[in-house]
């Protein structure tokens, strides 16, 4: 009797596990497309903050260039996509992923928009672990600090100027928090250098049906 009870309970547990697995799988399949759509909308919103619709007529999410994990200066740990903004088929800007590994509380994931003329279209912080009220001011939701990068380039300021004011550069630091803005300034400059070195690939014209 004991053996039969154990067997019966084992079968019931097995059936319950199968039912639960099927329920979870069904729920995932039903919500997967909706989740993917919401993620796409969130990504597009971040890109549009840097390159608004008035500046491009393509879908940046569908116009990408793969950047290798070992791309110099970008600090990536896996291959990522650069998003290309085009107007009339011509590239106007590339939005480049970059990671600052030297934030005060850890890595800072960013995207840097670089116009075809080499100037900054915009900088946004995607994720960070910086201290609330101090280092988190790099986030546009907390402070307009990142807007000071707009229009900057490798020649504006000069190389020595690409630093926080404490280091004799042109960018403000935060009271009680210098490490975080220092890391973001350096990462932004590295993204500009990458874009400058990869101009031919990032800003290449769209291939036409007549191209080989």
From TrEMBL:
It is found in: Cell inner membrane. Residues 103-195 form the FMN-binding domain. InterPro entries: FMN-bd, Ion_transpt_RnfG/RsxG. GO terms for biological process: electron transport chain. It is a single-pass membrane protein. GO terms for cellular component: plasma membrane. Its main location: membrane. GO terms for molecular function: electron transfer activity; FMN binding. This is Ion-translocating oxidoreductase complex subunit G. The gene is rnfG.
